[in-house]
Design goal:
heterodimer, A: 328 residues, mainly alpha, MetI-like fold, 0% strand, globular, B: 604 residues, alpha/beta, Rossmann fold, 3 domains, 8-stranded mixed sheet, 6-stranded mixed sheet, 23% strand
Chain lengths: 328, 604
C-alpha cells in the first residue's frame, strides 16, 4: 500500500511537469506579445527592448523554460498584465472563494448522487419522484439552470440572493463560512450559506447524476453478487450486509466518477461564477482571456490542472484502499 | 425435538423471469433426517437451486416469489416466518456452501473476518479453519480470498457453513467449479463435517455420481417435482423412473464404448403448458403412454407390497410414474441399441497413423509461454503457463488434452489459435488453419447479431453472393441439427446446447484443418453434452478435420481423442493411446487424476 502511494505520487509529479511544459509552450507560441500587453501599445521601442531583456525573452527557449520552472518552484507565476499584481497574489485572493463554492457543490453532488443511487437500488417508495426531476434538470446546460434558478428563487420568490458571496471576501483565510465559524458569527454563516446555495446547487446537478448513475449500476451488480447471498445466509441484518459487504465493493466506479466530476466542476465553475458574480478564479480567468493576460491564464490553468491531477491521485489511492486486489 | 433437520411439505414456488411468471417448484414433499446426507440431483432448470434458496428464505425479491406450502427448519416455517425469525434460523440452524467459492466470498474482506461474522469469535474461527483442514490457520486468517487456491476457498466456505453448529448444511453444487482432485477432497470434507459435527447435509448436484459418492439417500428432481427418491443404492442400481434411467445411461464413464454414438435423452418437444398437464417428462420419455400426457403421477412407493402407512418414510423408495416398476426395469436392461458412428470405423483411421505418416496438421516444438503479471512493485511476477511443450498431431487425428485448472491446457490451445503469444518455440499449422470453440457459448457469440449474421461474417472471405451465402448458412445449420429458421434468432433466444451448436457451425462453416475445442461441453447438462460430443465426432469425420479437445473430464477425454495427452504445470507428463492412458496410466499424476473421478461403479 505504502509503495503504491509513493509510486502514484511520483507519477503525479511527472504529470505536473508535463502540464507545466504544455502551459509554457502555449505561452511561447501565443500570438500576443506579452511585452506590448504589459507596457501598452504606445510604448517606445527602447522601453520594449529593455522590458524584453528584463523578462528574459531574448534567452533561448530552453533557458526560458528552466527559468519558468525555477520561478514556479519559488511560487513566482509572473505578474498579471491586467491587475499589475503578482499572479500568485491574485490567486490567493480569488482561489478560496472558488474552493468554497466547488467543495460545497461537490458535497451536494455526492449527497444527491448517493440518494439517487440508493433510492433506485433499494427501490425506495417515491424515489422516482426525486430521480425524475433530477434527471430533467441535469439535461439543461448549467447557464440555463443558473438563469432559471435566479428567475425563480431571486426574482419571483425572493428567497435567495443571486449575486456575490454576501460577506466581505477579505476575511483572514478567504473561506467566509470557515472564518465565520472560527470567529463565531452565526449571522454571517447564514448569509454566506444563502449566497452559496443557488450557485452551489446549479453546479452540482449534472455531476450528481453522473455519480448517481454509475453508483446505482455498481450497487445493483453488487447486490446480486454471490458473496452478498453468502452474507445473507449468515443471518446478518440487511443493514449489516449493506454496510459490510455492499458499500466497499460497489464504491470503486463511484469514486472514479466523483474524481472525474470534481475536475469538471473546476472547469464548469467559470460560467457559474460569472453569472453569480462570484469573486473566484473563474471570474478572474474570464476577465483575463479577452485581454490575453497570459501569466494570469497560465496561473489559473496550472492551479486547475494541479487540482485535477491531485484529485485523481487521491481517487486511485482510495480505490486501492477499498479493494486489496488492485494493489497486487 | 423432531427426528428431522428440515421438513418440506407441499412446496410450490413461482418466480418471474424475464417478465414471465413460471412455476419453478410444483409440489415438493421432502424430509431431511438428522445426520443424513441427502443428494438432490437434477438438470439445470429442475428447480434444485430454487429449493435451496427457499429453504434458506432467500428467494430473490426481484423475481417476486409466490410461495405455497411449508418448510420447517427447527421450529420455524421458512415460508411464513418473520424476517427476524428467518435470520435467526440462518444464523443458528443452517450453513451454506455455494458453487463458486471465488465469487461467494467477499473479495475485499479478509477471510478470517468473513468467518468471524458467523462465529463472532476469532479464536473459534481459527479453530474451525483447522477443523475443515486448513493448514496454518492463524496465518491464513488474515489473507484475502484471491490469495487462496480454489480448494482452500471452498474450505473457507465450509468453515463459515459449520459456524454456529448448524443442524443442516445446504451445499449447492459445491464441487462443480473445482478440479476433480479438489472435488474429491470437498466431498470427503462434507462427509467428515457430518461425522464430526453431526449435522445433516443436503448436497445439490447435477451429477448423479457425485451424489452417489457420499449421499445416504438421493432425490431426483425433474421440472420442479421429485421424480424419484430413495436410498442411494436403490436409485443407482434399481432405478424405477425412466428419467433416472435416462440420466444414468447418458452419463459418461471410463468404460463408455468409444465407437458408438452416446445415448442422449430425447429433446424436449412439449410446450411448458403441455408439460404442466401430465408428467413433465412425458414428451422425452421412451415409455410414455397416453395417460402420462394428461394426468400427473403422484409420488408413490416403488415396491408394490408397501403401503404408505407402514413404511418408514425416511428410507422409503418413492417414484412418480404411471408405468409399472417392471416396465421401467425391463427397459433398463434392454441392450443399448446405440448406433455405431458409421464412419468412425473408417478403416485403419487411428491404428495406422504411425504406419502411414501423413503430414502433421499441428507441429509444436519446445513451446513456452510466460505471462508477466502487472504491478506488484519491483518484483514482477511471472507465470510460466507453458514450459517446453512438444506435440505433433497427425492430419485427421483427434487428441484430447486433459489437466486441471492452471495446467496450461487452455493456454496451449489459445497459442495454437493465435490468441495468446508464444514466448519461445514454434507452432506450425497445416492448410486451412484453426478454428476454436469455447467453453461458454453464451458469451462467445455476439449478443446483438443474429445467428445468420454471425455465420455470414465467417463467410466474408469466400466472397459469395447473398443467395449463395444464405444457402451455405442453411446447410451449416442443417449439419449441426438446427432448423434453418434459427438463422433469424439471436443467441439469447437459444438454449445452452443450441448456442454451443451455433458456435460449432461458426467454426466449421468454412471447414478448418484443425478444430480446437476448449471444454465445449463442461457447462452443459449431461444429456446435452452427450449430443454435442456426438456432433463434434460426426463433424470431424464428415469435414475431415483434425481435432484438439481440451477437457478436465477424463471420461470425455478418452471418448473424444484417439490419443490422450495429460498436462500439469505447463508440461505434458503422459501421452498415448486413449484407452491405454486411461486404463494403464504410467505417470503418478495421471493416476491421481483417475483416482479422483467419481464413479458410480465404486459403489458396488
Amino acid at each position: 500500500m505504502f509503495r503504491f502511494i509513493v509510486r502514484r505520487a511520483g507519477s503525479a509529479v511527472v504529470l505536473m511537469l508535463v502540464l507545466s511544459a504544455i502551459i509554457f509552450v502555449l505561452q511561447a507560441v501565443s500570438p500576443g506579445d506579452p511585452v506590448k500587453a504589459y507596457l501598452g501599445a504606445n510604448a517606445s521601442p527602447e522601453a520594449i527592448a529593455a522590458k524584453r531583456e528584463e523578462l528574459g525573452l531574448n534567452a533561448p527557449i530552453y533557458a526560458q523554460y528552466l527559468r519558468f520552472i525555477a520561478n514556479l518552484l519559488q511560487g513566482d507565476l509572473g505578474q498579471s498584465f491586467r491587475t499589475h499584481r503578482p499572479v500568485l497574489t491574485d490567486l490567493q485572493s480569488f482561489l478560496p472563494a472558488t474552493l468554497e463554492l466547488v467543495i460545497f457543490s461537490f458535497l451536494v453532488a455526492v449527497l444527491l448522487g448517493v440518494l439517487f443511487a440508493v433510492s433506485g437500488s433499494l427501490r425506495w417508495k417515491g424515489g422516482a419522484l426525486f430521480r425524475g426531476p433530477l434527471l430533467v434538470l441535469a439535461a439543461a446546460p448549467p447557464f440555463l439552470l443558473a438563469l432559471g434558478g435566479i428567475v425563480l428563487f431571486y426574482a419571483q420568490l425572493g428567497w435567495l440572493p443571486a449575486n456575490g458571496r454576501g460577506v466581505d471576501s477579505s476575511s483572514p483565510t478567504g473561506f467566509v463560512i470557515l472564518d465565520s465559524i472560527l470567529t463565531g458569527q452565526p449571522a454571517s454563516i447564514g448569509l454566506a450559506f444563502q449566497h452559496l446555495l443557488l450557485p452551489g446547487v446549479v453546479l452540482a446537478i449534472a455531476p450528481a447524476i453522473a455519480i448517481g448513475r454509475i453508483l446505482r449500476s455498481s450497487l445493483d451488480a453488487t447486490m446480486n453478487a454471490d458473496y452478498v447471498r453468502t452474507a445473507e445466509s449468515k443471518g446478518l441484518t440487511p443493514f449489516t450486509v449493506l454496510r459490510r459487504h455492499v458499500v466497499r465493493n460497489s464504491i470503486g466506479p463511484g469514486l472514479s466518477m466523483a474524481g472525474l466530476q470534481l475536475g469538471f466542476m473546476f472547469a464548469g465553475v467559470v460560467v457559474v461564477e460569472q453569472i453569480f458574480s462570484w469573486p473566484g478564479i473563474g471570474n478572474y480567468l474570464a476577465g483575463s482571456i479577452p485581454v490575453s493576460d497570459f501569466p494570469a491564464i497560465a496561473g489559473v490553468t496550472l492551479v486547475l490542472g494541479t487540482v485535477y491531477i491531485v484529485t485523481n491521485a487521491i481517487v486511485d489511492i482510495l480505490q486501492v484502499a477499498a479493494d486489496p486486489r488492485l494493489a497486487a | 425435538m423432531s427426528d428431522s433437520a428440515a421438513r418440506v411439505e407441499g412446496l410450490r414456488v413461482s418466480l418471474v423471469r424475464d417478465g414471465v411468471r413460471s412455476d419453478v417448484l410444483r409440489g415438493i414433499d421432502l424430509t431431511v433426517g438428522r445426520g443424513e446426507i441427502l443428494g438432490m440431483v437434477g438438470e439445470s432448470g429442475s428447480g434444485k437451486s430454487v429449493l435451496a434458496l427457499a429453504m434458506m428464505g432467500l428467494l430473490p425479491v426481484a423475481a417476486d416469489p409466490q410461495v405455497d406450502g411449508t418448510i420447517r427448519v427447527g421450529d420455524v416455517d421458512m415460508v411464513h416466518g418473520s424476517p427476524e425469525q428467518l435470520r435467526a434460523v440462518r444464523r443458528n440452524e443452517l450453513g451454506v456452501i455455494f458453487q463458486d467459492p471465488m465469487t461467494s466470498l467477499n473479495p475485499t474482506m479478509r477471510v478470517g473476518a468473513q468467518i468471524t461474522e458467523a462465529t463472532h469469535d476469532s479464536a473459534e474461527s481459527i479453530r474451525l479453519m483447522s477443523a475443515v483442514g486448513i493448514a496454518d490457520a492463524p496465518l491464513r486468517f488474515t489473507v484475502y480470498p484471491h490469495e487462496l487456491s480454489g480448494g482452500l476457498r471452498q474450505r473457507i466456505m465450509a468453515a463459515i457453513a459449520v459456524a454456529g453448529r448448524p443442524s443442516l448444511i445446504i451445499a449447492d453444487e459445491p464441487t462443480t467449479a473445482l478440479d476433480v482432485t479438489v472435488q474429491a477432497q470437498v466431498l470427503d470434507l462434507l462427509r467428515e463435517l457430518r461425522d464430526e459435527f453431526g449435522c445433516s447435509v443436503m448436497l445439490i448436484t447435477h451429477d448423479l455420481a457425485v451424489a452417489a459418492q457420499i449421499a445416504d439417500r438421493v432425490a431426483v428432481m425433474y421440472a420442479g417435482r421429485i421424480a424419484e427418491i430413495g436410498a442411494t443404492e436403490e436409485i443407482i442400481h434399481r432405478p424405477t423412473h425412466p428419467y433416472t434411467v435416462g440420466l444414468l445411461r447418458s452419463r459418461l464413464s471410463l468404460d463408455t464404448p468409444r465407437d458408438r454414438r452416446l445415448l442422449t435423452l430425447r429433446p424436449e418437444t412439449a410446450s411448458a403448458a403441455e408439460r404442466m398437464k401430465g408428467c413433465a417428462y412425458h414428451s422425452r420419455c421412451p415409455l410414455a403412454v397416453e395417460r402420462c400426457a394428461t394426468e400427473q403421477p403422484p409420488l408413490a412407493p416403488a415396491s408394490q407390497g408397501d403401503t404408505a402407512g407402514t413404511a418408514d418414510t425416511a428410507t422409503e423408495h418413492l417414484r412418480a410414474c404411471w408405468r409399472t416398476v417392471a416396465d421401467v426395469q425391463g427397459y433398463t436392461h434392454e441392450t443399448s441399441d446405440a448406433t455405431p458412428i458409421a464412419s468412425l470405423a473408417r478403416p485403419g483411421a487411428s491404428a495406422d497413423t504411425t504406419a502411414t505418416p501423413a503430414a502433421p496438421a499441428v507441429r509444436i516444438t519446445d513451446l513456452t509461454t510466460v505471462f508477466a503479471l502487472k504491478g506488484g512493485g519491483r518484483r514482477k511476477r511471472q507465470v510460466h503457463a507453458l514450459r517446453g511443450v512438444d506435440l505433433t498431431v497427425a492430419a485427421g487425428e483427434a487428441v484430447s488434452i486433459v489437466g486441471e485448472s492452471g495446467s496450461g491446457k487452455s493456454t496451449l490451445l489459445r497459442v495454437i489459435a493465435g490468441l495468446a503469444p508464444a514466448t519461445t518455440g514454434r507452432v506450425e499449422l497445416a492448410g486451412r488453419g484453426a478454428q476454436m470453440v469455447f467453453q461458454d457459448a453464451g458469451s462467445s457469440l455476439t449478443p446483438w447479431l443474429t445467428v445468420g449474421d454471425i455465420l455470414r461474417e465467417r463467410l466474408r472471405p469466400a466472397k459469395l453472393d447473398r443467395a449463395a451465402a444464405s444457402r451455405r448458412i442453411g446447410d451449416a445449420l442443417e449439419a449441426i441439427g438446427l432448423p434453418e429458421t434459427v438463422a433469424a434468432l439471436r443467441p439469447a433466444q437459444l438454449s445452452g446446447g443450441q448456442r454451443q451448436r451455433v458456435a460449432l457451425a461458426r467454426a466449421t462453416i468454412i471447414p478448418p484443418s484443425v478444430l480446437l475445442c476448449d471444454e465445449p461441453t463442461s457447462a452443459l447438462d449431461a444429456s446435452l453434452a452427450a449430443s454435442v460430443l456426438n456432433l463434434i465426432r460426426e463433424l470431424r469425420r464428415s469435414l475431415d478435420m483434425t481435432v484438439l479437445f481440451v477437457t478436465h473430464d477424463l471420461a470425455v477425454a478418452r471418448l473424444m481423442g484417439d490419443r490422450v495427452v495429460v498436462m500439469t504445470e505447463g508440461t505434458i507428463v503422459e501421452s498415448g493411446d486413449a484407452d491405454d492412458v486411461i486404463h494403464h496410466p504410467e505417470h503418478p499424476y495421471t493416476r491421481s487424476l483417475l483416482a479422483s473421478v467419481p464413479d458410480i461403479g465404486v459403489l458396488s
